[in-house]
Amino acid sequence: MSRAQKSSGLTLRARHILPMCFGPIDSGWIRIQQGRIVAMGRRSPPGSVLDLGDAIVLPGLVNAHTHLEFSDQAQPLSGDGGLPEWIQRVMRVRRARADLLAEDSESARQHTAARIAEAVGRGLQESAAAGVTAIGEIVTAFVPDALSSIGPRVRAYRESIGLSSAAVDASHSQLVCDLDRLAARGIAAGISPHAPYSVAASLGNKLLHTARLRRLPVAMHLAESPHEDALLARGAGPFRTLLENLGVWQSDSPPQLLSAADWITKLSRAARGLVVHGTFLAESGDGEAIARLSYHRDRLAVAICPRTTQLLSGVLPPLARFRNAGIRVAIGTDSRASSPDLSVLAECRVLVDAGLASPEEVLRMATQHAAWAVAMEHRSGSLAIGRPADLAIVRPTTFPKDPYESAIDLSTAVVATLRSGRVIAGELPGASVLSQISAKGDLLPHMRR
């Protein structure tokens, strides 16, 4: 190795480094070479260094559950009436787009497709600016090119819905087509049966078979509303009304629907599974659902979205129940249709302020646990030698003894986000120096504000 090769790379020094796979490194440094972490230490690093002052370096955050297609929403939709009413508002937004897509006009279809792609791109940019380097994204009918752009890593879960036999066949055929499209673009894929009230048992069987065949992770909304059990157990309640209003519930031949507990058993057959929300699992089936989730915790995790749950259910996620059952808990933001922004740190703060978790615990949920939940734990979620240099660099204004508390303080700003050593949002101090390094073919060729 030449002297020039030995000197290439970048060393960052910060007040704290939070690797998450072991304890904080105070007055620490981290060295990046060829997009990977090659060394970490305390105090004085060898060679030249870029001093970040009072900043904190932590793993890039992982948003375990998003719907980026709604990133053009200026504010959340109303949560009045709970989840069934909110879904109808979401359907109106989607229907307006679908009507344009269905118009016999190529320009109208292109305009609407571009609008959705723009929303997804905007969501990716907002996520990167919030320190996020990996996302578990739910993809519906349109597979946007934006997902393959430079930005956060994406696990794209193709969502499927279908209750009638015709809808089941059509939905599965479209899924297979879109999985091939995702693979062709080099995007990590997954499969998402939408929810127990919108996916017939027969479709679920097809989806889980495909997931196992292709070795893909799965994600599913479960126990998000207290009204789910009324439909699943008795074919009654607000969800039946919703399905009747949508014209997909036939009273003379209702679809075969599965309980949350049965779905958990099915999801556990995939290589990795994610239960989204799970707010009312403990009340579902006399506790059988959460017991099964605990039993399969080696393959299943739960993703909670605190602000969305608060909007639609008036409560916060039952974190203590998940913790006591030994279940990994990841954090997501859901979408701008139910949350004011895509800030994972803001979701963390809600849990800490409510006394449900410590700052260290919520950061672990937003890094290590979330990376595991979306099957990206070998690339994301912690800082370790040999891993990609996916970093979030934050600058606090207050400095309590606990660096984790500093990292999630409301006044703390994300100053830069790096994926594989490349700045994808914000700007590092000393950018001119970094640009010179980049010109030599090393790190950070995509500097941008």
The CATH topology of the largest domain comes to TIM Barrel
Report the CATH architecture of the largest domain: Alpha-Beta Barrel
Into which percent range does the helicity of residues fall?
25-40%
Spans of at least 5 consecutive residues whose pLDDT stays below 50 are 1-7, 432-449
Strand content: 15-25%
Query: What integer value in Å does the Rg equal?
Result: 22 Å
The CATH class of the largest domain, by name, is Alpha Beta
Span of the ends, CA to CA: 34 Å
Number of domains: 2
| Strand elements, count | 16
Question: How would you describe this structure to a colleague?
Answer:
The model is unreliable at 1-7 and 432-449 (pLDDT under 50). The radius of gyration is 22 Å and the shape is globular. The two termini are 34 Å apart. It folds into two domains: 3-59 and 382-439, Urease, subunit C, domain 1 (Roll); 62-373, Metal-dependent hydrolases (TIM Barrel, Alpha-Beta Barrel). α2 packs across α3 (106-129), α4 (165-184) runs parallel beside α5 and α8 packs parallel to α9. Helices cover 37% and strands 21% of the residues. Strands 1, 2, 3, 4, 5, 14, 15 and 16 form an eight-stranded mixed sheet that branches. A four-stranded parallel sheet has the order 6-7-8-9. Strands 10-11-12-13 form a four-stranded parallel sheet. By secondary structure, the protein is of the alpha/beta class. The chain has helices spanning 3-7, 82-102, 106-129, 165-184, 201-214, 228-234, 238-245, 260-267, 288-295, 306-313, 319-324, 344-353, 359-365, 368-373, 403-408, 431-439; strands at residues 10-17, 25-33, 36-42, 50-51, 56-59, 61-66, 132-139, 153-160, 188-193, 218-222, 273-277, 300-304, 329-331, 391-395, 413-419, 422-426.
